[in-house]
Design brief:
Blueprint lengths: L2 H8 L4 H13 L6 H17 L3 E6 L11 E4 L5 H9 L5 E5 L8 H8 L2 E3 L4 H17 L3 E3 L21 H6 L3 E7 L3 H4 L6 E7 L5 H4 L4 H19 L1
Parallel strand pairs: 1-7, 2-5, 2-6, 3-4, 3-5
Antiparallel strand pairs: 6-7
Helix pairs in contact: 2-3, 2-5, 3-4
Length: 236
């Protein structure tokens, strides 16, 4: 059985109402606070995590800044990465994602409720516009997650290249960068069947602006990637 099917079956009576409520929030974002909309998204994602035969182990939550206005930067193994984060992180959070996903049902509504941005890496002007908007939102105190590889890794726990441009908004906003290391997240949706799987999510100590202000973005990218790689190697 497909794991997504299992998640839906175990929440069958919840799914219609939850989706209708999400669509309502998405159409009327001006009527509700970010906290109200996020609480519903958090509920949906948390149900997915707890009903999919997934043992999600989280460490380092004490490393998350208490005030918003920071950038999570994580390795990317699949769609479950976002589910795991939004299902366990209780404060409003936006996502930087591939523009091609912007009109996918369910994702479309979440984008509207979270002020998330779709990034087209093949369009320099569009990408610069997203970076400018992201910088503004970080300065306002909103927090986001970005996956610097740009696409999910096809090699399990081995990471691809981290794109330096992913860090420009944090630099311009002088915002902390909080690395996240995912381990075995790809097993949730990439493997056939729905047997129990264990996934690790590690929040690493934040990289403050004072620490990286004299570095170029490629250097920041390598530093963040290196810290994540070290945690993955230590825990697999």
């Amino acid at each position: 059985m497909n794991r997504i099917v299992l998640m839906c079956l175990r929440n069958l009576w919840r799914v219609p109402g939850a989706y209708i409520k999400l669509c309502h929030y998405a159409k009327h974002t001006d009527r509700y606070t970010e906290e109200e909309m996020w609480a519903h998204i958090h509920y949906i994602m948390n149900r997915a995590v707890t009903s999919g035969n997934i043992d999600l182990k989280i460490t380092g939550e004490e490393n998350i800044p208490r005030e918003n206005g920071f950038l999570f930067c994580a390795n990317h193994q699949g769609m479950f990465d976002v589910v795991a984060l939004s299902g366990t992180y209780s404060r409003p959070l936006g996502v930087i994602f591939k523009k091609e996903l912007a009109n996918v049902p369910f994702l479309k509504q979440i984008v509207a409720c979270t002020k998330s941005f779709g990034l087209d890496r093949d369009d320099v002007r569009q990408s610069m516009g997203v970076i400018a908007e992201l910088t503004k939102e970080l300065k306002k105190g909103r927090s986001y997650v970005i996956y610097p590889e740009g696409t999910r890794s096809r090699n399990g726990n081995q990471m691809g290249e981290f794109h330096a441009g992913s860090f420009r908004a944090a630099v311009k906003a002088k915002a902390p960068i909080v690395p996240i290391a995912y381990i075995d997240s790809y097993k949730v949706l990439d493997q056939k069947g729905c047997k129990p799987v264990s996934v690790q999510m590690h929040y690493l100590p934040p990289l403050t602006y004072e620490e990286y202000k004299d570095m170029k973005t490629p250097e920041i990218a390598e530093l963040v990637k290196g810290r994540i790689a070290e945690v993955i190697e230590h825990n697999i």
